[in-house]
Structures are given as C-alpha cells and as structure tokens.
Amino acid sequence: MLQPNDTALSVSEVNRRARQLLESGIGEVWVEGELSGVSRPASGHVYFTLKDASAQLRGALFRNRARFVAAPMRDGDRVRVRGRVSLFEPRGDYQLIAEAVQPAGEGELLVALERLKQRLSAEGVFANARPLPCPPRHLLVLTSPTGAAIRDVLAVLESRWPLARVTLIAVPVQGREAAPALIAALGLLNRQQALDPAQDVILITRGGGSLEDLWAFNDEHLARAIFHSRLPVMSAVGHEVDTSLSDLAADRRAPTPSAAAEMLVPDGRDLQRRLVGLERQLVRCTQARLERDAQRLDHLRARLRHPGEVLAQERRILGELEARLQRAGRARLAAERQQLGYLQRRMSACHPQRGVGQAGERLALARARLEQAMLRDMSRRRESLAGLARQLQAVSPLAVLGRGYAILQDDEGKVIRRAADTRPGQALTARLGEGGLSVEVKRRLK
C-alpha cells in the first residue's frame, strides 16, 4: 500500500507512461465505426470521432496522411480506420492516430455505385430523352399493387384526367426479386406493343425508403433494359432526394409518384376552363363577324342598281368619250400639220449648202490669223530665251570656273568651303572650268 510520504509522479510522467503502455500494448489496428464531429481546421489536419452503439473514440488524421484519402470524410459515413492508439500528453486525451481511411458497409456500396454510374454514363446509357405523349393513350405502371405509390398515382390521375387508361403490372419493388421482375416486365411490354400500339408510356415507380430498400433500382441490367426500351419510360423512385440508376436511364424522371402522375397528364379542370374561355371568345368573334357582314350587306344593297340603268349610263359615257376622241384627233392633226410647215421653213432657211460656204470663209480667215499669231509668238519666245540664257551665264558657277577658279569636293561629293573641313592625307576632287583633278591634302594653312 502506498504511503503518503512515497514519491509522487507528475501529471506529465503519468501521461507519458500511459501513452507508452497504449502504443506498446495495442499497437496498430483497424477500427470500424461511424464518423461524427468531423472538423478540418486551417492546419490541414482532420479531427473526428468514431462511434458505435455504445462507445466513441476520438481520432486525428494528420495533413501528410489526409491528402491520400480519396473519398471525403463526412458525418454519418461508416468507415474503417487503420491507426495506432495513443494519448495526447498535454491534455491527457486518449485518441486514435489514423494512417488510412476506407469506406465500410454502405459506404463501399456507394463507392461501387458511383463507379458503375460513371461507366454507364460513359457508355451513353443515361442519354435517353424521348418526349412523352401528354396525355398518354395507355399508361403502363410497373409497381407493387399494395404500395402507396400506385394509390398516389391513381388518385392524381383521377383528379386531373379521369379519362386516363391505366394498366398495373404488379412487380416486386424491393429485394432480390425486384430487378429481374422489372426487367422481365419491360421485355414483355415491349414485345406486346406490336399487338397494342396504343401502349405508349411506361411508368416505373415506388415510394421512399432506405438505401437498401431502393437498391434494386440501381441494378445495372435494369438500367440497360430501360435504355433499350422502345416504349418511353418515366421513373419515379423514392423521394425527391433519391436518385437511382433507373431515374438516370429513363427518358424522364419525376421526384415522387404523385409528381410523375402530374407530369404525365394535363389538368382536366384547367383544360375545361380554357375550353369555356375559348367558347366565349368564339361566340363573341362570331357575333362581331355577323354584325360586320350585315352592315356590309346593307351598304352593298344600297349601292345596287338595275342592270338596265347601268348599261344606259355606260352608253352615254361611251358616246361622250367617242365625241371627245374625235375632236381631240382633229385638233391633234391640225397642230401636227402646222408644226410640219414650220419645220419645213426652218430647214429651207438652214440649208447645208449655205452653211458650208460660210464655214469655208471663216476657216480661211482663221488660218491666216493663226499663222500670223504663231510667227509673233515664236519671235517673242526667242527673245525671252536669249535673255534667260544671258542671266544664267551671269550666275552660273561654270562661268566662274572659266575664269580660273576651282571647286573642291570630298569623296561624298560635298563641297569644301573651309580648310578646317579637311584633314592631311584626305583625297579631294578639284572641278575646273574644263575637266577635273584628283588632289591630296598635304597640310592646312591657317
């Protein structure tokens, strides 16, 4: 028995010994449970609690391991965690240091379902989108005869479209027998369509339930049977949040059985109200049309006269027009004769022979005046050219060169004006009055 004077351990020492015992006594283990309280602080670590029906265990997944976990960790997921049991000494917290996390139970099913969904989508199984007739001539419902789904569907159809023709094909909607029974029913209905062309829509439906209850509608073969169905298919499985492979493969999906019935048929009451409105509009339009036609008939009746009166009036008008035409013809003929006489007198006065003689005289006179003007202009231009030549000779640099001067140019043709612009040894060209010289600068004189 320990005595009061025995050496006491510190809290840190107790926690250290407890950690060592836990790590050496249990070691690395797999632990399965449900995630709860998942948190992800800015550090990148993941902290969580694993629990079952009677206990719970704190856990930590550090950042260097968290990046290798493929599926996100969410509250409620059932997982298997591999790690070592340890103790966080500063707080004395007993915890599981996780090394790997895998989905377990339902989580594995969901992962497999997601892979199957991606594969079917890549194959085009979810590409159906054929239009559904509204309302259908013959609706084929595949569901349980005792479930709430068929009661909801029939209640909605009765309230919205009592004329709907519905055939119930009783099939199990839960368990192992459900998917094969649905596939067989789809095949039978597609074969019977040739015998009854009025069958035009298939509705696959059931009420909500757990994932296990709805799992039959995630069957790969059922999804392919829906995809290959010649009859268009509507799927309404579970509640609004449930989405199965049957929903994705169908031509159209409804969130609930009741919503499916509402989407399949129009509301008869709305159609009745529309028909009443159209009937009233038709009556009003018909009455207005009859009134307009009656007024037009009265107007035409007032304008209508006996054919004899019309013919007599037309004869009088024709006689007046004939007399006006004769008067106008005689007046036009007299005016044309007068115009012809006037043009003949003008043509005689302007005979071409008279014009040719006058033009010849004017041409001879103009030729003489042109020759005199050309001689005077040439004389004036010669005098002007001589004056310009004298002016050019006076200012021409060639004249200066002729008096013994020379022009010096460098190899670029630039004129040298100052001795400072040259350098000893530079080659220059001297242009004289007649010819030129190549010279070299020996030295410059100040």
3D architecture notes:
The protein is built from twelve helices and 13 strands. It has 446 residues and is of the alpha/beta class. The chain folds into four domains: 11-104, Beta Barrel (OB fold (Dihydrolipoamide Acetyltransferase, E2P)), CATH 2.40.50.140; 111-266, Rossmann fold (3-Layer(aba) Sandwich); 268-300; 401-440, no CATH class. Strands 1-2-3-5-4 form a five-stranded mixed β-barrel. The mean pLDDT is 85. InterPro entries: Exonuc_VII_L, Exonuc_VII_lsu_C, OB-fold_nuc-bd_dom. Residues 128-439 form the Exonuclease VII large subunit C-terminal domain. It comes from Billgrantia bachuensis. Bidirectionally degrades single-stranded DNA into large acid-insoluble oligonucleotides, which are then degraded further into small acid-soluble oligonucleotides.
Strands in their spatial order, largest beta sheet: 1-2-3-5-4
Report the top-level CATH class of the largest domain.
Alpha Beta
Counting DSSP H or I runs of 4 or more residues, the number of helices is 12
Shape: flat
Oligomer: single chain
Strand content: 15-25%
Most strands sheet: 5 strands, mixed, barrel
What ranges have pLDDT less than 50 throughout 5 or more consecutive residues? none
Q: In which range does the helix fraction lie?
A: 40-55%
SS class: alpha/beta
Order of secondary-structure elements: HEEEHEEHEHEHEHEHEHHHHHEEE
Count of extended strands = 13
N/C terminus separation: 129 Å
Mean pLDDT: 85
Nearest-angstrom radius of gyration?
58 Å
User: Do you know the CATH topology of the largest domain?
Assistant: Rossmann fold
